[in-house]
Amino acid sequence: MQLGKNYFGKTKDGEHVYEYIIENKNGFKVNILNYGGIITEILAPDRNNKYENVVLGFNNIQDYEEKSPYFGCIVGRTAGRISGGKFTIDEEQYKLVKNNGSNNLHGGSKAFDKVLWQVEEIVEKDYISLILYYESKHLEEGYPGNLKVKVIYTIDEENTLNVNYEAITDRKTIINLTNHSYFNLSGNLKEDILNQKLTIKADKYVRVNEEILPTGELMDVNNTAFDFKEGKRVGSHIHDNIRDLKICGGYDHPFVFNRAEGYKALLEDEKSGRRLEVYTDQPVAVLYTGNFIDDTITLKEGIVGRKHLGLCIETQDYPDHINQPNFPTTLYTPENKYRAYTMYKFSKM
């Protein structure tokens, strides 16, 4: 196991950003910034044991600050959109920063993806962990409670990346964290993700409206473009002329996991032979197929951005649950610590 650290650049506020490189003896490697906890690169093997990058990222801090497609970052305090940029707890209304029309998206304008995290390194014989710490102040971006957050990235010799989230608040609040990595198993972005095969163990998905806000409606996936239970190409139905896909330009929908054992999602690339299993204790994943990536960005490989170049499997709680009476709502207090877990297991077909 190896751990390295490189200087990545300086933010517009003069903060120094470092890239941590954690690698196992196989050559499986994950690069992570102390800015936003961003995963900038994951090197995973194809069927011929060739290690190539399988996530989207930039090669400079300025693009992460200014272009903001949320590549690889920690999302918080809440993943997804909070409708109207407000919510009420115990008859007290909290007004959030509105950074997506009239809504709050992924925690606000300077949320967890746009701040420096403190980093602790742990190197053991069979694993390496990076522990990232951040303290979010009461009413930061409008959210209640002083919140102490810890995110632990761990790799092992089995080519798995484990992400553990913990948070403690000093007053009642909402918390819903995720990682926003865009995966593409072709290796170094040789192709888009439309021919990659996706399985999601979900019987229902959540409808969204024109603002990509949850409507609260849980829809059966059976015999629809949203049925990934048996696995199919991402692009099989992505261009179908149906409302739920047209308003998003593809998939940007929460899927509610069923009780099936094992992985919750599986992504496979037949051409490269790469395989990614996603395990989590969260009830939902938002499938986002990179619908808003365009040619105004250039990826670290020098490739110009385009639609559907990567996909996100954003494991999380129900988005906007605080404003959705049909969704189960979880509130966190000093006695009720937030915990969440997701594992990404890379292998060969």
UniProtKB/TrEMBL annotation:
What InterPro entries is this protein classified in?
A: Ald1_epimerase_CS, Aldose_1-epimerase, Aldose_1/G6P_1-epimerase, Gal_mutarotase_sf_dom, Galactose_mutarotase-like, GH-type_carb-bd
User: Matching Gene3D superfamilies, A to Z?
Assistant: 2.70.98.10
Which keywords, in A-to-Z order, does the entry hold? Carbohydrate metabolism, Isomerase
- State the PROSITE patterns in the record: ALDOSE_1_EPIMERASE (PS00545)
- Catalysed transformations (reactions): alpha-D-glucose = beta-D-glucose
What residues sit in the active site? H180 (proton donor), E314 (proton acceptor)
**Which biological process terms from the Gene Ontology are attached to this UniProt entry?**
galactose catabolic process via UDP-galactose, Leloir pathway; glucose metabolic process
What Gene Ontology cellular component terms go with this record?
A: cytoplasm
Protein name, entry field? Aldose 1-epimerase
